[in-house]
Write a structure and sequence with these properties.
The structure is a homodimer. Chain A has 10 helices and 10 strands. The termini of chain A are close together. In chain A, strands 1-2-3-10-4-5-6 form a 7-stranded mixed beta sheet. In chain A, strands 8-7-9 form a 3-stranded antiparallel beta sheet, with no helix packed on it. Chain A has about 350 residues and is an alpha+beta fold. Chain A has a domain of about 240 residues: Malate/L-lactate/L-sulpholactate dehydrogenase, NADPH binding domain (Ribosomal Protein S8, Chain: A, domain 1), CATH 3.30.1370. At the A-B interface, β1, β3, β5, β6 and α7 of A face β1, β3, β5, β6 and α7 of B.
């Protein structure tokens, strides 16, 4: 088991050694740690290697000039200058919050960025300002539209954070696919099949093979099949892609660059890098903040009091699982599986630092 | 078969006879007709009776004072004064568009409203202004959160309309449940079962019985079950509910009033009427409008060129089915099933007008 401080310091050091400023290295480490603490290890230390390899391949800029290139009172477009995604994303959300402070709401579309970790981190930045936070991002294409076999979209997540008074905040943070890609990797490692409704084979037939992406298969959108509303998941995923990339001038759909160095940069591009979209809405642009937050308490209490189905012991509010994971991990520490530890030891050695 | 003009004039007359102003009656008729023309008959003439009965029960205000009660440069809260939903919704979207014109984006939360027809109509109002339009609404509770059997949410739709240059606009308009409630009614009338994944019985077991809502059952969220991501549908539906009702001060979740007169007004309320949420985003607050619209053409062309799965002949863009329905219905006319025609004849007789 590792402590927060040990991994935070290690991650900071990795990015310092890559050439990031102290400020940027700390931002990046904070987002990595937020993923680990909230129980989303799939976006935590396991990804350090991907960033390290992208850096070695010259595909990320460790000294970026992240800047506004277009704006209105309530909007901005930010160019991330090929930065580590966390750097462009954090700056973009800060701009959204500043805009909201003056205009009631702030909306920022960001281009020329890279993978940014967990979307929920940026949405939650709004909470301490008595604002609602929103974060979307596109991602490299693995997902087929309804009726198609072409990999056109990422698992394009949506995160929305809404503050309450005495209750913990409402925090939704979810991919617009039934499962995250990481679950396929886990099933593959265990030699297990997956349930139908997650992936299809190269001709579009339902598949339970977690390795199917390697043989021309694709992931399905939320809903799974047309009968169960996959076209709604396709709508959602498309909206995330358009807001993130067409608004900002990033690459959309099948042109989103891979977030790993072992996949080549695509020959064709329709914009710059990966795209994100951020929103901040000042509560008191709608209702006095205290009144709103009391209403949110009431909303949360009402939904928490829903009657559980037979065999279930309780009904959850979005954000509950992550908050409970954080409480547990704060006590128990962070576990790193041996294969990931080995990677980190190797990276540390290459950079002349220590990991044990 | 009926013509657009005949049904538009009839609907206008119905609402004039109820006491609406000419301006309001025409707005209401236009939204009813938009549903029919876009192939969503479930939100068209079949609903006239519901509004008529609500009016007779004194549950809608035909002479409302729809007004802003709170605002910031980019936001407003509108009180619908118990109006027919279309009247409050249209005014609210107009305000969102005005706000966007000045501040880049405009966001309006509306309370004290009623059922407003198809969400897509309001989102599409933004298109002619070179804006993106967004519309959400909550609705009377039929849907259970993941792990629950309590009917806490409506089928809470999301509509997003995005303009393109030479391509038709991208228009997504979908309930956050696998199916609309109307499909259950259709299966019931035909004496058919429905697929699993749409509804559950009163203990939370999967059900294929389309009448199950009458015996304590509930509808499921998009995703269907936890394994296939129903918690993501629950997140979406919750977000729509909170934006529509907590932002505006309307009733949320299980407190949303029924949109039919044969169900009693709830004893308990936590706000005023039904709630909606509207957004308008000026394209050129992000990108020069022409550049953006050309990119949207490219997005649409790229996705339309996705390879169809085996047995499918093409891949659709959100908005294609409704546009094609409209082309067909413009040629063929609007069909009204006999039972609905009988209702309209009776309503006409009661109001001293004609329907044949």
């Amino acid at each position: 088991m590792y402590t927060y401080d040990y991994l935070y310091q290690f991650t900071t050091n990795v990015f310092l050694k890559m050439g990031c400023s102290e400020h940027y290295a700390e931002i990046i480490a904070e987002v990595f740690m937020a993923a680990e603490m909230r129980g989303h290890a799939s976006h935590g230390m396991i990804r350090i290697k991907d960033y390290f390899e992208l850096w070695k391949a010259g595909r990320i800029n460790v000294r970026p000039d992240v800047r506004i290139v277009h704006e209105s009172p309530s909007t901005a477009v930010v160019d991330g200058d090929r930065s580590v995604g966390m750097v462009a994303a954090r700056k973009s959300m800060e701009i959204a919050i500043e805009k909201a402070d003056k205009a009631g709401t702030g909306w920022v579309a960001t281009r020329n960025s890279n993978h940014f970790g967990i979307a929920g981190y940026y949405a939650m930045m709004a909470l301490e300002h008595d604002m609602i936070g929103i974060c979307l991002t596109n991602a490299n294409p693995l997902v087929a539209p309804t009726f198609s076999i072409s990999r056109m979209m990422g698992t394009n997540p949506i995160a929305v954070a809404i503050p309450a008074q005495n209750q913990p905040p409402f925090v939704a943070d979810f991919a617009t696919t039934p499962i995250a890609r990481g679950k396929l990797a886990v099933a593959e490692k265990k030699g297990e099949k997956v349930a139908l409704g997650f992936v299809q084979d190269k001709s579009g037939k339902p598949s339970d093979d977690p390795t199917i992406l390697k043989s021309g298969g694709s992931m399905l959108t939320l809903g799974g099949d047309r009968l169960h509303g996959s076209h709604k998941g396709y709508c959602l995923s498309s909206i995330v892609d358009i807001f993130s990339a067409v608004f900002s001038g990033a690459n959309f759909g099948p042109f989103v660059p891979p977030s790993v160095a072992y996949l080549p940069v695509l020959e064709k591009k329709v914009g710059e890098g990966t795209g994100h979209f951020f929103g901040a809405m000042r509560i008191d642009a709608f209702q006095p903040a205290d009144e709103f937050k009391k209403k949110m308490d009431k909303w949360i209490e009402t939904f928490r009091a829903s009657i559980p189905a037979e065999g279930e012991d309780r009904v959850l509010i979005p954000g509950d699982p992550e908050r409970e994971a954080e409480e547990r991990i704060r006590k128990e520490g962070i576990s790193i599986v041996p294969a990931i530890k080995d990677d980190l030891v190797k990276i540390a050695a290459e950079l002349g630092i220590n990991f044990q």
